[in-house]
Amino acid sequence: MAKTVALVGTLDTKGEEIDFLRSLILARGHRVIIADTGILGKPHLKADISRREIARAGGADIDILKEKGDEAFAQSIMAAGLKEIILSLVESKKIQGLLAIGGGQGSIIVAPTLKSLPFGFPKLLVSTKVTQAGARPFVGSKDVLILPPVADLAGINRLTRTILTNAAGAISGMVEIEQPEIEDKPLVVMSMNGTVTDCGLAVKAMLEKKGYEVLVFHTIGTGGEALEEYVKSNEVVGVIELGVNEITNELMGGLASSGPDRLTAAGKRGVPQIVVPGSADFINFLGPETVPPRYKRRKIHSHNPQATLVRTNVRENRILGKTIADKLNQARGPVVVLWPSKGLSTLDRKGRPFWDPEADMALLKALKRHLDPRIPLIESDAYINEPEFAQAVFMAFEKIGKES
Amino acid sequence: MAKTVALVGTLDTKGEEIDFLRSLILARGHRVIIADTGILGKPHLKADISRREIARAGGADIDILKEKGDEAFAQSIMAAGLKEIILSLVESKKIQGLLAIGGGQGSIIVAPTLKSLPFGFPKLLVSTKVTQAGARPFVGSKDVLILPPVADLAGINRLTRTILTNAAGAISGMVEIEQPEIEDKPLVVMSMNGTVTDCGLAVKAMLEKKGYEVLVFHTIGTGGEALEEYVKSNEVVGVIELGVNEITNELMGGLASSGPDRLTAAGKRGVPQIVVPGSADFINFLGPETVPPRYKRRKIHSHNPQATLVRTNVRENRILGKTIADKLNQARGPVVVLWPSKGLSTLDRKGRPFWDPEADMALLKALKRHLDPRIPLIESDAYINEPEFAQAVFMAFEKIGKES
Does the structure's ipTM exceed the value 0.95? Predict the structure, then answer.
């Protein structure tokens, strides 16, 4: 069945490429809606959604944007307008996929749209910017296919032609393929990482045995962002947090932050939460050269060349405990906090490099001090990755589910 | 027509996902060849290319790799073996596309293969690693489609199912779509960036008018890498270098390096080269926080929030001049160096922030001193982005082409 693909780009500088992509997608039997995010130059071809419409949806007049000459402002207007128009087309099922191409400006304008499209919606960005500045500023925590075009998108030549043809093929294939039916199991969302894997997999297995489906997000920054985003917009019966390191990273300047809104979506929607302060013993960095000087004298663990962990101290864990408590106190649904007394990660255990009972105790005390009394804090005499602790998490989850 | 897709992953930890992808690609009417890059666990399904074969192609026995327990070594063996096997399948036209999925280990093992596949060959990587560590370690300067799977690839659930289905759709669409015929125009490769755009576009237009096709690479690190890679493996009648900043970055620790081999591929193949030391006036960094302390007191220009430029000084330009000369002296083909006396970039011109005749002169002197006398150095009394200078570049190119 024919589908409709939105093609997004600046028709002044990327008009030739958009025109080429359109012809390929039409040749596959699909329909195309072209959105022009250009601002200054003359469009190379006619858009279905003009820059004027986009600027208007963003709250401004395109002529005024041009005259004003404030590039950053114009980009933000076009970005907001594009997002509104595209999301409403998705909502009304008028488009089934989106293909955007961009240099710097084009990529910046389409970024908020890409970050807002639903998970699973076919979306592809061909951008010269993603290999240098990284993909995250443009795609956030979303499942955007990214294609670095290698050569400049400055006209059609034998290399860009081949690469754009692949992009057209990829978006066509995505809108054509049938998405499998989704079973209607109750869904649990879980956060996890390599230092709490045994706990996570054990809890997951117990939940699956009981007929739940479990979605796991890795607490490396984007994972937590995706978790929040997912919980915000999908039906979820419970959230189990086994890694709080993204919150530590946000507070302490680490490189695995999920922004200030981590640990809030479930609370806002009243979804039951089990929270284990797992992985509270470290701040994440990438290569050793990315560890700031202020942490050089801490205990440091090199997990692999792209993962260096810094031990949190008493002061930091106090702040972390208060922050977690403040977030959970806002929750509209039930919350239970579980505490594994014998260690918070594979590294934080007797005999392991980050074992530091004093720092852990500071976190526990801060939690006790700041948590709303209606939120139970259950202490377990186990290490986080022991089977008993996974059992305790599972039981707490079953109990909270029945009560809510 | 049915195509064959290579499916690559560790069949112990990602077997379920590979199996699911296989069923989708088969359902589209294509063939699948599965390569198992797993090392430790039991494969979830039978591979067409077993881990044993891959290890052997990499020069080791899989049982010994397992026993030895040296993860990094085992990964390097598997990576080398996979690359050899896949490239030979591509060579003999037995596969028309490659889809790889991976967590940390899987992504590291497939990276050298992805970096070696020809431009335009359909290749897609679903990896949990690319949003955190960046895509470049895994795809280099190649046109690899990258899909961040958002949730952990730890079993099939409603989210991974949707995302993997999109991946299967994308690779199917890419192998299905017909690549356009390539016209047989003589091909010129050019390096360029935003500070020498006027020169680049003017030269490009003159070349196109004469019947050449021009491929432009942006000198931001990956661009130069791609340029070298492209010149190495394709028929090119000439290379015009308008930006040498990637070499400066390699020498001075900037963030737009293309590695030590920049400015060598054309020379090795004897391809005629016109070299303009454009953009020699700066070292590239990303945000202002990425500028190392040693440069804090230099002239710094903030181009945009993700592009901060540091002015090169006399000492650095001497080193740069010698380095460029040493590289060009090795060239087996003809080389001409053109020097725009009135400025090397939009920033390095009278009245502009990086205008520094002394630093520029140091570069010119170093070039004169170290360049082989057989390499002409033509000084032009123009600024790099003036039409006269573009004309001079074009004329030098025509002349060198006739002589070679």
Answer: no
